[in-house]
Amino acid sequence: MKEFLHMGGYAMYVWPSYGLALGILLWNIILPMRRKKQQIASIKRRLSRAKNEK
Question: Which of 2, 5, 37 is nearest to 18 (CA)?
């Protein structure tokens, strides 16, 4: 297991690359979810204002 984690001496390049890739993948999942919530809230506010104006 130690040899695997050491990656033949390239661990200092491999593991940060995996970490960066994981971070980007998570960001690509979280950001659209947050934007969707914001858009839904914005639409609800506009609909509420439109109802109150009538």
Answer: 5
